[in-house]
């Protein structure tokens, strides 16, 4: 294997609060380890187009507290093609990049795997608000996104309480209900709907709301993960079937922005530092994962094959606490 002297760093897929802290850690730990560090803009699209510039210690000043990513992010259809992969590997060669640190979700990991197969070493850092990467217990941005959604829910609950209404709140999570379930538990919702579990309108939504009313509740929250969808329809059905005034709110991209929490900043800093450490030890084509609360690195293909599932016991607990 060629000795690694220059590393590139890019952010890819959906942005997540804490990505800047990860970039900062890769740049500073990388320079400390003796590497030249190149910032690649706009994810894989920027790698293909050569949007690459050298980073120094000051390039990452004053970014640890900022959401988003200073390197910008993008989705690149071209990288999913053989020609796109070749262009990306060639461009890395033109800039003398010997390895790329990719901060992104599992789609970005698949792109990284393709690059590695064509001879460009990669290291993956999990960065996505959804926490939906199978090999790791944590992904950068998840804690901040949950806190943002919870803050919005608390505010909506104040007004729902005053008007004695029901609120249907859509939070992010296309394929995974982690954000929805935790926000529902922490926010004291009456109902939660997640993509991992099918629901029956009457049994799982209407009945608990009416039973709650009969036990003296006067306002109600239904938290719905984005992947379940249909919030407008669900809100209309609740109002029609229960007679309780019902409003819906879709939080959308609000949850992707904002100042990262302590947990996200520290985790992103640790993961960035670990990525450099792994390279320094001569291990390539690895991804950084949190397992049993420790940071480890795994082979990227093996990591991509790993699955995780939501703890159904938490749903049972939610139901008890929502009574
Ligand atoms: P998030 O979960 O936050 O959306 P992600 O990394 O999963 O993040 P994607 O849009 O799925 O986001 O992927 C980002 C980029 O990675 C894509 O635009 C594409 O360039 C590359 N990519 C995604 N899937 C694949 C794949 N199956 N093979 C090769 N490259 C891929």
How would you characterize this protein structure?
With 323 residues, the protein is of the alpha/beta class. Helix 1 (19-32) packs parallel to helix 9, helix 2 packs across helix 3 and helix 7 packs across helix 8. It has helices spanning 19-32, 43-49, 82-94, 106-117, 142-163, 178-187, 201-214, 231-242, 262-280, 300-305, 312-321, and strands spanning 6-11, 36-40, 52-55, 99-104, 122-126, 166-171, 191-193, 220-225, 246-250, 286-291, 294-299. The N and C termini lie far apart (60 Å). The longest helix is centred in the middle third of the chain and has 22 residues, at 142-163. The model has no long low-confidence stretch (mean pLDDT 97). The structure holds adenosine-5'-triphosphate (ATP). Adenosine-5'-triphosphate (ATP) is lined by residues 12-14, 44, 75-76, 79-80, 104-108, 110-111, 114, 128, 130.
Number of strands: 11
By DSSP (H or I, 4+ residues per run), the number of helices equals 11
SSE ordering: EHEHEHEHEHEHEHEHEHEEHH
Content-based structural category: alpha/beta
Poorly predicted runs of 5 or more residues: none
Form type: elongated
Largest sheet: 7 strands, mixed
Spatial extent as radius of gyration: 22 Å
N-to-C terminal Cα separation, in Å? 60 Å
What compounds are bound to the protein? adenosine-5'-triphosphate
Present the secondary structure layout.
Blueprint: E1 6-11, H1 19-32, E2 36-40, H2 43-49, E3 52-55, H3 82-94, E4 99-104, H4 106-117, E5 122-126, H5 142-163, E6 166-171, H6 178-187, E7 191-193, H7 201-214, E8 220-225, H8 231-242, E9 246-250, H9 262-280, E10 286-291, E11 294-299, H10 300-305, H11 312-321
Parallel strand pairs: 1-2, 1-4, 4-5, 5-10, 6-8, 6-9, 7-8
Antiparallel strand pairs: 2-3, 10-11
Bound molecules: adenosine-5'-triphosphate.
């Amino acid at each position: 294997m060629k000795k690694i002297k220059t590393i590139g760093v890019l952010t890819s897929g959906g942005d997540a609060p804490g990505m800047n802290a990860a970039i900062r850690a890769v740049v500073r730990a990388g320079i400390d380890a003796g590497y030249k560090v190149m910032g690649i803009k706009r994810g894989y699209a920027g790698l293909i187009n050569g949007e690459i510039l050298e980073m120094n210690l000051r390039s990452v000043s004053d970014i640890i507290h900022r959401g988003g990513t200073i390197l910008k992010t993008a989705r690149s259809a071209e990288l999913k093609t053989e020609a796109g992969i070749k262009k990306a590997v060639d461009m890395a060669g033109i800039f003398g990049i010997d390895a790329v640190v990719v901060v992104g979700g599992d789609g970005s990991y698949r792109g990284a795997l393709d690059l590695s197969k064509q001879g460009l070493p990669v290291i993956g850092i999990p960065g996505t608000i959804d926490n939906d990467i199978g090999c790791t217990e944590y992904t950068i941005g998840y804690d901040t996104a949950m806190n943002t959604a919870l803050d919005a829910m608390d505010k909506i609950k104040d007004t729902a309480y005053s008007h004695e209404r029901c609120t249907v709140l859509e939070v992010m999570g296309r394929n995974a209900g982690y954000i929805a379930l935790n926000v529902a538990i922490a926010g004291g919702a009456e109902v939660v709907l997640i993509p991992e579990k099918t629901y029956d309108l009457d049994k799982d939504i209407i009945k608990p709301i009416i039973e709650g009313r009969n036990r003296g509740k006067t306002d109600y929250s239904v938290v719905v993960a984005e992947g379940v969808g249909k919030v407008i329809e669900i809100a209309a059905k609740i109002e029609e079937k229960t007679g309780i005034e019902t409003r819906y709110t879709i939080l959308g991209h609000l949850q992707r922005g904002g100042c990262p929490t302590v947990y996200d900043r520290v985790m992103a800093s640790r993961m960035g530092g670990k990525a450099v450490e792994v390279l320094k030890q001569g291990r390539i084509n690895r991804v950084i994962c949190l397992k049993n609360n420790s940071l480890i690195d795994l082979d990227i293909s093996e990591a991509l094959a790993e699955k995780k599932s939501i703890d159904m016991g938490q749903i049972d607990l939610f139901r008890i606490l929502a009574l």
